[in-house]
Amino acid sequence: MTPLALQTSRRADGNRVLIATGEIDLSNIADFSRALDDGTAGSHLIVDLQAVGYLDSGAINALFAHADRISLLINPVLRPVLTVSGLTSLVHVER
After folding, report:
1. 65-82 per-position pLDDT tens digit
2. 23 with 31: CB under 8 angstroms?
3. Angle between helices 57-65 and 29-40 (to 10 degrees)
4. What per-residue confidence (pLDDT) applies to 34?
5. Which pTM does this prediction carry?
6. What span, in angstroms and rounded, lies between the C-alpha atoms of 70 and 36?
7. pLDDT tens profile 4-53
8. How far apart are alpha carbons 56 and 68 in whole angstroms?
9. Could you give phi then psi for residue 66, rounded to 5 degrees?
């Protein structure tokens, strides 16, 4: 298991970004959900999952809960599960 690290920053264009690194699962879903809550409070959030190699259904549910306020940068490994879940049809996936 790869521990989860979360970092929030702001891009040059002013957009807030939550950068996740590691794996998102039951052991750290509360931290991930809290970071999503904080990041989307009053603004749009880009969730950068490019360095995430695994996420479980709890992480997908957390992303669905914020679907109207997020866009995603994803690791290609995650695309199949995010597509099958329907999340990629609700959330803009940046290239």
Report:
1. 999 999 999 999 999 999
2. no
3. 10
4. 97
5. 0.94
6. 9
7. 999 999 999 889 999 999 999 999 999 999 999 999 998 899 999 999 99
8. 20
9. -115, 15
| DSSP for 32-53, written as a single string | HHHHHHHHHTTS-EEEEEEEEE
Cα(63)–Cα(73) distance, integer angstroms: 12
One-letter identity of residue 36 = L
Order of all β-strands in the sheet with 70-74: 5-10, 16-24, 45-55, 70-74, 92-93
- Give dist(CA 48, CA 79) in Å, integer: 13
Superfamily of domain 5-93 in the CATH hierarchy: STAS domain (3.30.750.24)
Q: Six-digit token pair at 64?
A: 């669905």
